[in-house]
């Protein structure tokens, strides 16, 4: 009797084990699905046109997950407190426009950050795009070589080629603001006129991607354009400006050719100022076919010199 009882007990336990095993399996499958869904939503947030973010989700969590994924981007949190990063290859964006931040009572001021100083990093930057021909050709070359770059776009060109802007974003390059239409006369009247052009461009980029850049480049660079009043005004609006320390001179008036850009970059990256953070100026807009032609050799030389390829973020060191 006791034997039968214990056999019955054993059968019961085995059945319970099977149920327990099945439950465990279901649980594991469910967990797997949650992880998969989280990964998909993560890419949707950083790599594709962004749907309205759920108010309940923490942007800090998104940022943390993005970093762990080793790709996509970081979305700055409401307080701008997650910008001190350790990886120079992850682009950073804000999910709010400046007017949305003001309306919500959130900070718009960029905090003081310690610039990234590890290793030997090169930042390929392409200004004045996107266009429909050279920018896609550059994206193809970057993809073939497995490297990232930064595109400082104008609002005017983003409006004309939103599909190319989306591709830049989807392929995890960084996007920076380069004014609406590159008109020095309007831009450099005062910090206020400069910032209103930048904010206009942000609204356009945000309308296409659902995020706005925190980085910008002053058309023509800051020298001769910015007065002392510009830096604090930019900081108060949450922007960091980066000029360059290596110029391909691909926009020089004497119509230089691909080999000139290669030589310029090769010689300038040997200078001490560019040894650890080389920020290279190039252009990806209409008429820059020679830049496209030069790019594969430029990448080959930089790889041979031991550079890794970063994207500009608020914590990228200043070029000088
Ligand atoms: Zn420009």
Automatic annotation (TrEMBL):
<keyword id="KW-0378">Hydrolase</keyword>
<dbReference type="InterPro" id="IPR002509">
    <property type="entry name" value="NODB_dom"/>
</dbReference>
<protein>
    <submittedName>
        <fullName>Probable polysaccharide deacetylase pdaA</fullName>
        <ecNumber>3.-.-.-</ecNumber>
    </submittedName>
</protein>
<dbReference type="InterPro" id="IPR050248">
    <property type="entry name" value="Polysacc_deacetylase_ArnD"/>
</dbReference>
<dbReference type="Pfam" id="PF01522">
    <property type="entry name" value="Polysacc_deac_1"/>
</dbReference>
<feature type="domain" description="NodB homology">
    <location>
        <begin position="120"/>
        <end position="310"/>
    </location>
</feature>
<dbReference type="GO" id="GO:0005975">
    <property type="term" value="P:carbohydrate metabolic process"/>
</dbReference>
<dbReference type="GO" id="GO:0016810">
    <property type="term" value="F:hydrolase activity, acting on carbon-nitrogen (but not peptide) bonds"/>
</dbReference>
<dbReference type="InterPro" id="IPR011330">
    <property type="entry name" value="Glyco_hydro/deAcase_b/a-brl"/>
</dbReference>
